Amino acid sequence: MVKKRSRAYIWQFVIGLGLLSGAWTAIGIDPEAVILNILGDMVETAYSDPGVRSFLLILPTILLVISIIGAYRQGRVLGLISVIVAYIAGLFILVSNTTSLVLIGIAIIIGYLATNRRLRKKLTGT
User: Fold this and answer.
1) Which residue has the higher pLDDT, 102 or 4?
2) pLDDT of the residue at 120
3) Distance (Å) of CA 121 to CA 53, 55, 85, 113
4) Rounded to an integer, what distance in angstroms lies between the CA atom of residue 100 and that of residue 113?
5) Cα torsion angle, 99, 16, 79, 28, sign
6) What is the dihedral of CA 81, 82, 88, 93, to 10 degrees?
7) Cα–Cα distance measured from residue 125 to residue 111, given in angstroms and rounded to the nearest whole number
8) pLDDT at 1
9) At what angle do helices 117-124 and 97-115 cross, to 10 degrees?
10) CA quadruple 119, 120, 124, 126: dihedral positive or negative?
11) What mean pLDDT is predicted for residues 11-21?
């Protein structure tokens, strides 16, 4: 059970939210914004309500907040630290592959510790 929970957390939040977001930031492209912009143009041609367009503009922020809340609920503070370290690893991916690999390794270890509740209780005493 712990192994399955850790694997899902690492793939979904550490790799997906942290590393890939950092890599996209380093490259300078936000694929979510590009997709939502195309979707917004398509919706605007079919249904020209400014409320729908406004919703599509704030949707990336809503999705980011939901992702951060999900990362916190599953990994608590240690989990958020692992996502931040993975984001930094993604930022360094174009600068130094070695630094990026070391940071993602650290983020994966922290992410594993964040979802392993028994080990976390032993380490933190809570």
Assistant:
1) 102
2) 63
3) 46, 41, 22, 10
4) 20
5) positive
6) 180
7) 18
8) 63
9) 90
10) negative
11) 95
3-state secondary structure of 49: coil
Q: Can you tell me the distance from the alpha carbon of 27 to that of 73, in angstroms, rounded to the nearest whole number? A: 29
Q: How confident is the model at residue 64 (pLDDT cuts 50, 70, 90)?
A: very high
Residue (of 88, 84, 89) closest to 68 by Cα position: 84
Name residue, tokens 């630094």: 99
Locate 5 and state its tokens. Answer: 């929970």
Token pair for 24: 């996209």
pLDDT digits (tens, 9 = 90+) for 72-120: 999 999 999 999 999 999 999 999 999 999 999 999 999 999 988 776 6
> What tokens does 15 get?
């790799």
Alpha helices in 28-49 (DSSP H): 31-46
In this predicted model, which residue has the larger pLDDT, 82 or 4? Answer: 82
The percent of the chain in helix, strand and coil, each rounded to the nearest 5, is 90, 0, 10
**pLDDT, mean over the chain:** 90
Tokens 């942290």, residue located: 18
